[in-house]
Amino acid sequence: MVYTAPMPVAIAERKRRAVRGELSEVALRLLTDRAFDSLTIDEIAAAAGVSRRTFFRYFTSKEDVVFAFLDQWAVRLAADIVARPAREDPVAAVQNSFRQLTAAYDDQALALVRLVRETPSLQEQEMINREHLRIAVVNALAMRLGLDAERDMRPQILATIAFAPLDAAMLAWFGNRFGEEVGHLLDEALGTFERERDAMCAGLQSSTKPRTRRRSARS
Amino acid sequence: MVYTAPMPVAIAERKRRAVRGELSEVALRLLTDRAFDSLTIDEIAAAAGVSRRTFFRYFTSKEDVVFAFLDQWAVRLAADIVARPAREDPVAAVQNSFRQLTAAYDDQALALVRLVRETPSLQEQEMINREHLRIAVVNALAMRLGLDAERDMRPQILATIAFAPLDAAMLAWFGNRFGEEVGHLLDEALGTFERERDAMCAGLQSSTKPRTRRRSARS
DNA sequence: CGGAACTATGGCACAGAATGCCAAATATTG
DNA sequence: CAATATTTGGCATTCTGTGCCATAGTTCCG
Fold first, then answer.
1. Which residues of A touch B127 (CB under 8 A)?
2. pTM for this predicted structure
């Protein structure tokens, strides 16, 4: 009666993922020809041989189809960060994992990014996606450092700092330097980052006291 | 014929701003009682004494009404940053401006934030709004430093770093520490930031070479 | 095997968002 | 006042997203 079968839940889950993958695959194939805004959900559903209603049982919105693909990157990145050698510097761990991720960009990923670039309604989603990426980095760093991201602000701040050059590289690539190589932009961003950091540190150690402990001035 | 009157454009612009302000004021007043999702645009338009169609001539979406208010903060923050004394450290300039901004939070602002917090469809907009805030900081810093943000990555990186503790404070406040004082969270975040920065610098200068110039290792 | 319980799907219907179009109202200029 | 330009309102339309219920397909168990 109230007994819930153990095996079917795993099977159902795999089946669900399969349908979801099929749906987004069909949608992305259609998006190679059509503009995102002109493509309706009815068309996606019809092309996948599924009813419109069923589509909304797998995706909450049309943007979600693209987002589902992009979100896998955040998962991979987070996994890479925690899998990184434990003695590696947190900032370096984030940046190496990121470089590994961008190196794996294939043609499909490039087409996807191009689609997002030229679709205003997807650019907002892209901001949200970048934020998800950052949050993934925060959690991965928190796990690495054995800290609770809900209580301690260190993971937040460290992750944001480590993410700064990556963000800059992505934004430059996404923006007005799309033609250039991602790896090259990443190099430039990391170089700028290190230079600025060194300058900041040099400015600090010029002060007499080795550790600045003063409270910041109230306005 | 082809002559365009000079004065009317300014008047029309002010009138437009007035209508826009009136609309969002009415909407926010309605939102003190009602939930965001249950409030329809027809109601807003009716309460403001305009047609539904006219509403969409002033706002692109329902979320835009809230967003219009929140976006003013970004404008103010950017203005504060560029108006800051020129000899002030860029990072400090950003953080002082931000503190000034959060200190000016009034009851209406708090109610607005509370609304966003408890409305899922607005939380996405909140991410976008934070990103707009960051971009405003980037541009303000670029102007301060006399750099072109489109070509040079320094403004991006510096702004993101300077913004990191502010972001952490906002997120903590927005998240699970809503009851606490914003200024206090900001103090905590800035303290953590300075401590981490000092630790990072100390780690750097422990190396023999004063300036690290090595290329980051390829994966 | 065969019915019972459960789950996924499809097909409505519906409210609301957002946009295009055109006519009426309103404001502006000469 | 008349001509012109701008703003507004109302209508129609397309699409999104969701609730509801009947139906088809599956799994469980006697």
1. 127-128, 131
2. 0.84
